[in-house]
Amino acid sequence: NNIKIIKIIGKSINEDIIDIIIKDCLLKSIPDTVDELDNYNEISHSITVLESKFNDIEFTESMKSLTDFTDDINILFAKKKYQNILSKARDLIRTDLHETVTLQLEDGEKIEITVDVKDIELKGGPLKNISILSLPKCQVSTSIVSLIELIKSALEINTKGVHPVTKGDHSVAKGYQAVAKGDHSVAKGVHPVARDIIELYLAIATTCHRQALQDLPQASALHHNNCLYLAHHLLSLGHQYRHLSPRPIFIDQIPLLRESGRDAILAQLKHLKDEIIENLSDIDWISLSDIGVVDSSNVDIESSDKAINRVLHQLNRIGKLWYNVLPRNIYEKSMATLINTLIGYIVDSIVKLEDISSDSAARFNSMLSNIEDKAPLAIQDSQNIVIHVVVASWQRMKMLIVVLVAGLQDILEQWSDGKGLLAHCYSADEIRNLIRALFQNTERRAAAIAKIRDSEV
To answer: Does the first or last residue of the chain, that is N or C, have fewer Cβ atoms within 10 Å of its Cβ?
Structure first.
């Protein structure tokens, strides 16, 4: 019937052949860089010639599968680049947190950037202009520094993609818009890759490092710093590449990063505070309050000393781990929170006791004095810290040390009709309870309690 054998064969296998060519040859020819994309014309011409010969010998019937592939090379290039960048980002996010680098800008290197965000409406209302200065000295994971470089490279590709880089109607920027998933209401399709890297980080960082963030204080500190570092750079990058979009690109992601970092350090602090309280919870405060009154052999004084020393040792270990990792202000606040947990628990436990013997009062005085001497040592390089300012319970402890060995008159003088330093640290009910616990029921005790009650009126 004058039908060529090649045409008969083509009807059976041409689609398979085309698929093999695309899968095993053309997909592998997709450029990796913009420069390679510029030079793709030679490959495109070869593909056009090959398809033309298929049509000439009637192996295919005017099919354009191969040339359709080359016509869409910008989109395919963008898709490949998009996938490669996200794959690299995923690997960096999963990298161990403990490979670190110390960040410290010199005093003369302050960065000042003002971004006009008055038109951006976020949860909580419109933002005002944002001004940021240099990052404080701290440590971040080396992987997060590499992640910022990856984001910059993605933005650079979009910068080059603003103008067509190949013949035809496509550009790299259009390719990225076609590949981008979701509705980026701020970005409007401009550099979605950079935004998606941050979305990926927010989605998987805490999951990938969940165990480390729970168990290792240094890991939570590094995640906190990593989030602040990312937020800091995204603000400056949004300003630097503002020509790509009329509105700040990352402004809605920055608060989420800061929140993730804050949540990590707060969760770790809660975990450490729970550990401190657990270590102290086995202390039998009622037995300790009866030293000298009952058989002292039944009072486990050594156990209470061990529990407190264990907590002090824990605080010293945390202080060394976080020193030079966290920014100094966060470091001091975090350590002060942990010290305050120790002091607050012990002071509250003593104040609630209904009866305290003189020997027990002396013992509690010695216990608190030991903490007063050793607790500040947990904060490294603490000579410039005003300890009673940063640790909320510090003054309560100081005054309790005084009250435990003071006479009734001394306590009344410290109370000073509700105007003294003791009144700033304790309520009238707490002082009355301490007086009842420390002193026998006499007329002088009753008069002192009445005087404190009268000062409330």
So the answer is: N
Q: Which residue has the tokens 């606040």?
A: 333
Closest C-alpha among 134, 104, 331, 315 to residue 222: 331
**Bridge partner list, 294:** 291
Cβ atoms of 216 and 270 closer than 8 Å: no
Cα–Cα dist 187/154, whole Å: 14
Report the SS3 class of residue 130. Answer: strand
DSSP string, 399-420: HHHHHHT--HHHHHHHHGGGTS
**pLDDT tens digit string along 406-447?**
999 999 999 998 899 999 999 999 999 999 999 999 999 999
Asked if 287 contacts 298 with a C-beta cutoff of 8 angstroms, the reply is yes
Give the residue from 375, 419, 423 showing the smallest Cα distance to 396. Answer: 423
- Cα distances from 146 to residues 12, 91, 219, in angstroms, run 50, 11, 18
How does pLDDT run across 252-271, given as a tens digit for each residue? 899 999 999 999 999 999 99
Distance CA 375, CA 378 (A): 6
Closest C-alpha to 206, from 286, 262, 134: 262
